[in-house]
């Protein structure tokens, strides 16, 4: 009886599917009318066309086409959303569970505080899984002796922490999060004297551990990691028991420190390169069939994820073609209103569910359980050993691991380090001439290695699954200031467009190898940085035409007026309904609109430019890790829902310049309309700047009203450059308006 019980269930929300599809039909019909209206204008007799307006009409029409194109791509997500429930209690006995390797990446001890990285490490070591079946590998791209020494300290603390978690079935096994929750009165259900005494003792051990980390940092304060970090031989060390056995023998997961070789002359391919080294090194040590990948700031908030993921990986109906189980990224430091939309609500609560109903969600960098075999490409068709060596490299140990993959028998795992082999596998030269990064492992060529790799897996027939249990399993560090948000966005949008412009273009590769709907989803992800084009255009052209008295939209009495009113209203309402139905508020809806506008005109634009420069070989790829150090002042502003505008002028100038244009055109436009009296022709052109100004009011507030540190400091450079930019834009468009 037990065996027939399913490990997971799928739920389809029929009314959601129905309303989504109805909305698609209505909105699409309206878009067709819009295109018809615009085309009629262009095919009109030039004499009947109102004089000089061809150029702005073309610009606005082009923007509408791009917006409609991205909208159509986005409907793939809305077609068949599903959700899932898992039943981990139906899994086989512990002794029948497979091995799991955990990969944790860290890159920079100054931007990624060592104590936090160690907390992530401890939370992963304490997963609810047989410890002898768990192997944790830390990749340190900083090559920092601080990280290595801190891991030795973490190992010592783990000997206290893990038994404590197991004994009292602690839910949150990240010590930092656990102690801060219990300080705030949350967390424990156990009130026994024994528990409280143990907890006090563990708390003291944790404080001592924190001091040890500080001491380690001081001891190594002379290190020039920044320089050394990019030029050093591979370092691999198993973190083990040293004989001073303070407490009785506790079983801990196997822990390995890996810092791959770095040479300035060799491209290291950022995180994808780091993960591929862990893939190989772990293959000759534990070779677990499933791998959990974590960013250094994403700790396990609950210990159940491994078993939940196995509900899919061990389900005979799903497992054969299943490449990975993705958990949504959630964050521990998000304020109630989340003014920067750092939780990416739309992605993790709407889009991924939509893809889950097709071939599966996109790989999202962290918090996923990957089947090891799925990243080995077509190694099975390599008939000879020579072919295989050209494919995956020359390590005999690694080739052997391919042949004996998926052995859940933990006894075969040698807990000694095959040193020569692992050093070879972590060296710069190992990948030269092989298919690593091209067909094997995480793929190179973009800083969004996750989307690229997930897309290629889906193309090759693999599926994925979204597992979003009510209790968040992983919590990361969300960006809580504008600067980090925009820098991270620029990197992502460059990486995404890289994929869209490469030979992996989802609109070409996708439909041949997966469903059209799934390809649309990937295309939406890779092309949405193009939002910058229509948003820039619609923030300038209709406004300038308003002042000049050039109508670009049908007048109020025209039947087509309703089409032009319906389309934005339909899009805004759909967005609002999605926000409300995923637990958001009206305020959240406005915030998301604002962040969409701000990032479209800044980071989307810079991301697109970076991608183009890279395409033409004028710029090298770079990956600036997101800052994870908390700053008190910044946190205070964030908690008060106030924007922290302390970012570079590169981001501020476009925002300020476009607002100057919108405000002055709005005032000029009102004045003109009042004196001429053609408000019915200009109605939509009046609404547009008004909407932009209202949504972006925090920028105006930051510029003129606020006096705190986070305001937009009106430096001469900012004021002059914004005004120059606004003037250049205005005069260029005006001169073209008159000519074309
Ligand atoms: O050369 C590098 C650069 C980064 N990392 C690690 O990669 C992870 C992600 O970097 P982070 O700076 O946190 O970037 P985010 O923008 O926050 O990360 C998101 O976007 C990345 C793709 O750009 C994905 O890889 C991540 O999983 C996803 O959370 C971190 O653990 C880093 O330590 C490396 O190991 N080596
Ligand atoms: Mn991150």
TrEMBL record:
Mn(2+) binds at residues 271, 295. GO terms for molecular function: cellulose synthase (UDP-forming) activity. UDP-alpha-D-glucose binds at residues 111-112, 141. Its main location: membrane. It is a multi-pass membrane protein. The keyword Membrane applies. Keywords: Cell wall biogenesis/degradation, Glycosyltransferase, Membrane, Transferase, Transmembrane, Transmembrane helix. Its EC number is 2.4.1.12. Pfam families: Cellulose_synt. InterPro entries: Cellulose_synth, Nucleotide-diphossugar_trans. This is Cellulose synthase-like protein G2. The chain crosses the membrane at residues 24-43, 55-74, 650-671, 683-705, 717-737. It is found in: Endomembrane system. One of its GO terms (cellular component) is endomembrane system. Gene3D superfamilies: Spore Coat Polysaccharide Biosynthesis Protein SpsA, Chain A. One of its GO terms (biological process) is cell wall organization. The active site is at 141, 450. It comes from Glycine soja (Wild soybean). The keyword Hydrolase does not apply.
């Amino acid at each position: 009886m037990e065996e027939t019980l399913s490990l997971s269930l799928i739920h389809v929300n029929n009314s959601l599917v129905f309303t989504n599809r109805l909305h698609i039909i209505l909105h699409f019909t309206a878009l067709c009318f819009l295109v018809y209206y615009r085309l009629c204008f262009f095919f009109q007799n030039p004499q009947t066309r109102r004089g000089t307006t061809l150029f702005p009409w073309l610009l606005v029409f082009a923007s509408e086409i791009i917006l409609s194109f991205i909208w159509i791509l986005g409907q793939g997500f809305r077609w068949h959303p599903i959700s899932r429930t898992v039943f981990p209690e139906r899994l086989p006995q512990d002794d029948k569970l497979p091995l799991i390797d955990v990969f944790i990446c860290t890159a920079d001890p100054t931007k990624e505080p060592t104590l936090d990285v160690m907390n992530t490490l401890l939370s992963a070591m304490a997963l609810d899984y047989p410890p002898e079946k768990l192997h944790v590998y830390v990749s340190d791209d900083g090559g920092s002796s601080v990280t290595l020494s801190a891991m030795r300290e973490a190992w010592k603390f783990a000997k206290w922490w893990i038994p404590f978690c197991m004994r009292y079935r602690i839910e949150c096994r990240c010590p930092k999060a656990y102690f801060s929750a219990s300080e705030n009165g949350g967390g424990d259900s156990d009130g026994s004297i024994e528990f409280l005494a143990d907890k006090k003792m563990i708390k003291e051990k944790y404080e001592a551990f924190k001091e040890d980390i500080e001491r380690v940092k001081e001891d190594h304060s002379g290190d020039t990691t920044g320089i050394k970090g990019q030029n050093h031989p591979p370092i691999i060390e198993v973190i083990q028991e040293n004989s001073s056995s303070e407490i009785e023998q506790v079983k801990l997961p196997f822990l390995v420190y890996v810092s791959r070789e770095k040479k300035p002359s060799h491209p290291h391919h950022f995180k994808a390169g780091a993960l591929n080294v862990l893939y190989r090194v772990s293959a000759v040590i534990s070779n677990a069939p499933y791998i959990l990948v974590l960013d250094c700031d994403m700790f396990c908030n609950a210990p159940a994820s491994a078993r939940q993921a196995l509900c899919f990986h061990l389900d005979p109906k799903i497992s054969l073609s299943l490449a990975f189980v993705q958990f949504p990224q959630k964050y521990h430091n998000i304020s109630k209103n989340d003014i920067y939309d750092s939780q990416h609500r739309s992605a993790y609560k709407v889009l991924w569910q939509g893809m889950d109903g097709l071939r599966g969600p996109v790989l999202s960098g962290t918090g996923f359980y990957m089947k090891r075999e799925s990243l080995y490409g077509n190694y099975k068709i390599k008939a000879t050993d020579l072919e295989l060596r050209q494919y995956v490299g020359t390590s005999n140990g690694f080739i052997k691991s391919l042949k004996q993959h998926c052995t859940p028998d933990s006894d075969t795992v040698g807990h000694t380090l095959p040193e020569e082999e692992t050093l070879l596998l972590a060296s710069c030269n190992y990948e030269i001439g092989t298919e690593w990064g091209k067909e094997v492992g995480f793929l190179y060529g973009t800083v969004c290695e996750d989307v690229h790799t997930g897309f290629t897996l889906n193309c090759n027939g693999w599926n994925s699954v979204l597992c979003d249990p009510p209790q968040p399993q992983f919590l990361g560090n969300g960006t809580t200031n504008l600067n980090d948000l925009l820098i991270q966005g620029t990197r992502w949008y460059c990486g995404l467009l890289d994929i869209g412009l490469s030979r992996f273009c989802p609109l070409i590769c996708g439909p041949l190898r997966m469903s059209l709907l799934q390809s649309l989803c990937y295309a939406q992800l890779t092309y949405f940085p193009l939002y910058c084009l229509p948003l820039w255009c619609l923030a300038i052209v209709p406004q300038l035409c308003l002042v000049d008295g050039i109508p670009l939209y049908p007048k109020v009495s025209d039947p087509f007026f309703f089409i032009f009113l319906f389309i934005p209203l339909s899009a805004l309402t759909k967005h609002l309904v999605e926000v409300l139905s995923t637990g958001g508020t009206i305020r959240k809806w406005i915030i998301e609109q604002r962040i969409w506008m701000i990032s479209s005109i800044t980071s989307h634009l810079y991301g697109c430019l970076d991608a183009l420069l890279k395409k033409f070989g004028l710029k090298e790829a770079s990956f600036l890790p997101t800052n994870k150090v908390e700053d008190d002042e910044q946190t205070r502003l964030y908690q008060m829902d106030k924007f922290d505008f302390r970012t570079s002028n590169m981001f501020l100038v476009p925002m300020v310049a476009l607002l100057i244009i919108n405000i002055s055109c709005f005032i000029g436009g009102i004045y003109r309309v009042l004196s001429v009296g053609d408000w019915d022709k200009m109605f939509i052109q009046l609404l547009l700047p008004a909407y932009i100004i209202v949504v972006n009011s925090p920028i105006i507030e930051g510029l003129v009203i606020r006096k705190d540190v986070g305001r937009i400091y009106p430096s001469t450079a900012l004021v002059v450059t914004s005004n120059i930019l606004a003037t250049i834009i205005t005069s260029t468009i005006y001169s073209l308006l008159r000519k074309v």
